[in-house]
Amino acid sequence: MALDKIIYYDSEFIKKFEELKTLLEDEDRPKIYQFLLKEFQFIFKLNQYYWKQIAESNAREFLEEEEEIRQELMRPLSYRQYRMIERSFSPWREEEEHVIWSIWDFLHDNGRIYHKKVMSSAEVSGCSMILENVYSCLARTKKDNK
């Protein structure tokens, strides 16, 4: 997937998001892992791009958007999203399911995903942190099951 500069919560993204929920409900960890790698891996690269562009005061993609989108790009995380980041760092083995579900919960944000237009730069960063923990949890589980 080419690195798009802004993640829109459009019908394509929502479809992938809802497919993720189905996979999580099925509890097929190898499929979840592969799906996340295929469909959400680009978030890591976008996060790196954002930090580099913002550090260089060169976030032109933000400036070229209409005012409503610019405002959403700068939207901070909700309290619930902060809690999901914290939950994704849970060290307890019995809480692995919470760690794995934290990616969906973070993006869902208590139903707010359906009212947002774009993923803010803070959400891209938070999502990257959670994804890393979910990948680690899924990989660890995969290794433990062998």
In short:
This protein has helices at residues 11-26, 29-40, 42-55, 60-63, 67-73, 79-88, 96-108, 121-144.
Largest sheet: none
How many helical stretches? Answer: 8
Q: Count the beta strands.
A: 0
Unreliable runs, pLDDT <50, ≥5 residues?
Answer: none
- Give the H and E element order: HHHHHHHH
What does this structure look like?
The chain has helices at residues 11-26, 29-40, 42-55, 60-63, 67-73, 79-88, 96-108, 121-144. With 146 residues, it is an all-alpha fold. It has one domain (11-144). Helix 6 (79-88) runs antiparallel to helix 7 and helix 7 packs antiparallel against helix 8 (121-144). The N and C termini lie far apart (31 Å).
Topology:
Elements: H1 11-26, H2 29-40, H3 42-55, H4 60-63, H5 67-73, H6 79-88, H7 96-108, H8 121-144
Helix pairs in contact: 1-2, 1-7, 2-8, 3-8, 6-7, 6-8, 7-8
Pick out its properties.
146 residues; mainly alpha
